[in-house]
Amino acid sequence: MYALQVGSGVYCLIKRGQIVYVGQAHNIAERIIAHIREGVKDFDRVTYQLIPPAALNDVESLLIKTIRPPLNMKCTEPHNGQEQRSSRSVISITHCVFHHQKKKDETMNVKIRVTFHRRSVYYKTNFWVYEEDVQKGRIVNPKILNDLRPILDKYRNAIKYIASDKSIEFVRNKLRNIA
Q1: How far is residue 136 from each of residues 8, 55, 140, measured CA to CA in Å?
Q2: Residues 35-65 as b or e (16 or more Cβ within 10 Å = b)
Q3: Which of 7, 21, 113, 178 has the highest CB neighbour number within 10 Å of its CB?
Q4: Coil, strand or helix at 170
Q5: Residues 149, 141 contacting (CB under 8 angstroms)
Q6: Cα separation of 16 and 68, whole Å?
Q7: Which domain does 97 fall in, by range?
Q8: Are 4 and 48 spatial neighbours (Cβ–Cβ below 8 Å)?
Q9: 114 and 48 in a common domain
Q10: Which residues contact 7 (CB under 8 A, 6 or more apart)?
């Protein structure tokens, strides 16, 4: 097993020897960990190449067009005879904490971040955490993470079948009743 390096690059998620998804990240290690936590994409191996941030879009796009991974291709549709690049149209749901929103009692509200087409919407939760429960905006306390899991699952189930041609406003309206 290899350790992931921190840095920008393009990565491939692999299942049974086949590349099933190509993505890019400014911090590959954090992004792979996020994929594991989200549990949406099924993979058993990861390969990656460190790439300067300025070249990420071009390299990722070239790999997707060449390899045509199934999890990227589910999000593409023909558009005027061309393939539309939409590897970023997958909805991502995760928790986050903002240190600059700390209250006087030193607690911070846990928010649910929903990202779609590179735009994010944040929903407040009833969870409050202390500084020692958070590292780099992510909760590290296993008990709190376990308590958050049903809430994240509820959001993920609500958006499971949203097509990639919808807007962030559509997603926001779909999730309005949950928040």
Answers
A1: 17, 26, 9
A2: beeeeeeebeebebeebeeeebeebbeebbe
A3: 21
A4: helix
A5: no
A6: 16
A7: 92-175
A8: yes
A9: no
A10: 27, 28, 50
